[in-house]
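Worked example (supplementary).
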Amino acid sequence: MAAYLAHYLVMAAIYTILALSLNLLIGYAGIFSLAHAAIYGIGAYASALVALRFGFGFWGGLVIAALVGALAAALVAIPSLRAAGDYYLVASFGLQVVILTVFMNWTELTNGHAGLPAIPRPVVFGWVVDTPFKYVALALALAALTYLVCQRLTSSPFGRVLQAVRDDEIAAAAMGKDVVRVKIVVAVLSSALGAVAGSLYAHYITYINPSSFTLHESIFIATLVILGGTERLAGPLVGAFLLLAIPEALKFLAIPDAVAAPVRQILYGGLLVLFMFVRPEGILGRRRVRSTRAAAGAAS
Amino acid sequence: MRRLRTVIVTLTLAAAGIAAAADSAPIRIGAILPLTGSGASYGVWMKGGAEIAAEEINAAGGIAGRKLEIVFDDHAADASKAVNAMRRLVEVEKVPFTLTSYSAPTLAIQPIGAQHHVVMMNGGGQSDNLANKDYLYNNIPVVSNEVGVIADWLARDKKLRTAALVTANDEAGRNSAKTFRDKYAAAGGRVVAEEQVTLDGTDFRAQLAKLKAAGGELLYINSYGRNVAIIADQARELGITIPLAGTSWTLVPETFKSPGAEGMLTTKLPFDPELPFAKKFRAKYGVDAGFFAVQYYTGTKIFARAAEEAMKKSGGRLDGDGVKQAIESLKVFDTISGKLVFQPNHAALMDIEAGVLRGGKVQVEKVIKASH
Amino acid sequence: MDLVLQLFATGVVVGSLYALCTLGWGLIYGTTLHFHVAHGAVFTLAAYYAYVGQKVVGLPLPVAAVAAVILAAASGLLIDRLLYQPLERRGAVRTTLFIASLGTLILVENTLAIVFTPDPLRMDIGILQTSIRLGPVFLTALHLLTVALVIVAAAALMLFLRHTRSGQAIRAVASAPEMARTVGVDLRRIHLLTYAIGSAISAPAGILVAMDVGAEPYRGTTFVLLASVGVIMGGIGSIPGALLGGLFLGLIENLGVWKIPSEWQSALSFGVFLLFILVRPRGFFGRRVASAEL
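After joint prediction of all chains, the assembly is encoded as:
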């Protein structure tokens, strides 16, 4: 039982980091990316490879993952400068598919479908992290750190510029805010943090392969953000902890293994639809001002 | 003083009681199998074989009086799922032993098993990389053995000296292709082209068109499970008339039903459909047993034998190290298919048959005996 | 040379399937501006309707197929009626509609996976399986039917939009919804009609794929993604563009593997698209549209 709880907490922490970092893009920069699982994967592979090939320790791997993630942010950011809204959405699908194909087929680097086993356990301040309890401590610490970083960013003057860009990009540009710079900074930070989550994941499960970083995974992370609420910083945190509890709760219902995964997905899909009717701003969101155009449409 | 003695006696009795309870607690082992997905046909065989073995063991009194229970998990050909299942088995169920299947999933769980001293028995995966791994035993020959036989037979006996390859883009497929290239070249053959396919794909026409253009006297399939039948049918649809070939892992029910696979040249590992086991399997599950059913029946029985041996030596305690030592010291096991000998590389040798697939059955033309 | 011709032929067949999807999705998107990912669910449902029609109810294949198209059109219409329209009445922004659409797609796919298992379900296609040889190119009758269907569908759609009252109303709504409403067009009715037609056009793609390789619950997601890529490449609001976009995708996928290893097939299509977006965001025939806001 304790092992189950520990596993849930570690995964909830990892998804908190993923959701918080994705929310920087969606909630604060207005960039709806469905390529976050690819970034997550890039961090996981970078960290695993430097550990396996060059004997890097956990912190070294984390830093490398963050750096590689930050570089990969260019892939996320550049299309957003040329394409907004729906165009960007489709471009991010495309990015996700391309990166996943690279994971699967650049076998010299990633070992392709077979994945990378035997990733070493993290060593933190001389302690080997190899028990569930130690992992929980490490994961929660990293999640808390991520939260603090995001909080510093969003409550800073830069954070207010972010929100201006999200709310009305054209107006923000008209006011002289450097929209391009804003998007790039956010993308870099978002990707670096997403990659850090990947690093933690790789050293926890001690095995990675491409199937953990698919489009479905990107959709799942976006689900956590949307349902938790994009307006408040704690929204993604709530989203992650609550939504990850669902599969755990399902375990008590003795659902046959073969249908457990689709059942889980049905619950997530159902929640998305339900929330859009009942509470589109998410659990912790603030009710947005209804767009007048839509309201006028409703009156016809 | 009297109180101390009472305490000691009470504690001893309590300890004995706890030990007695532990002594009759069931022995749980794991089984990580392809229960769903492109390899579900194997899963039916593997699970059924293991279940029948457990039933027989328990009917005969269990292992040293304790019932055997198997905890089944599905990897659906995804190594990540296998890893999650293994972690549950190791951390929560605390099993001493698990059956495993498929190459990539087994390679992925092996470090976990080795670290936690849990023995893994693979009855299905065949990648050469599965040999020589700590705590992992393979009661099936690695692919080099089979591929060596068929490569030789195709080049020398059948005189088909150029081949185009269809390869599954996973560990097992790639390893098989690499080995085929080596063995085929050694027998005087030459590979003219290779294309990759996915295990769960449904449309391989682009790859097959390219292979057709490359020429070659045969189409060799380094893939397994559901997609073999699709590859065969689509190849024929595209006007590819050269013979198809593959090893025993292509022989699943879908392949038997495929018109395109008729006449496929293949190797086969020994399986006697007249065995009482086969009849029992058919009666219980309504489908014919296959080679892999016997494999997992055997794997379970090997565990039972090794566990008995381990508990005898340790005075009733059972753990992974004990099972490992028992397997290493026993080395030879009596199975329903004959004697099984674990080689120093932790893999087994078997007789290999080569023949032609006709009407859902392999007509054997050549038998290569295993040299122990 | 034979190889290139074969790959070209397969590319045209696959491109036709994609074109059926781009035509349908493009019509819906161009008229309603909904990012209707649930179109993938309609595509998948069409496949299962046909499968059930033939294998469970026992209908002859053509009857099952036609019934499936009608049911798919109804399904698409219902999604607008029960999902998008109520949400719009509540003042939902486009992101909300997209999320709801995504949720619906996930719901439908996974329900189908539970009911029918995730394994591909084959249908009996009888004579459509016959191999047809055109010189060095090998195709089946089913493949030729696919190409014929997309030509008919595209032509029918163009005629409909140009020469019928409803069609013209749809075009009016697509280019200037406010103006259309001012002259008395019932937006809600036009949306329903658009969904019905768009779904009816793409349904055959799902059915044809099911007839070729079996019905699968998760295929719709891939097809709707590719449809959106094809529509953007072809240019939003253009039928020839949608046709060309779909064909282009099919050709890249198949001709592309002539020189690059086949496992990079999907990366190639999306890679080309990403380049496209950077170089010519409005696509082949698109109007110079201000970046559509999500």
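Two points are worth noting when inspecting this output. Chain B has two domains: 27-141+273-341, 143-267+352-368. The CA atoms of residues 83 and 109 of chain B lie 5 Å apart.
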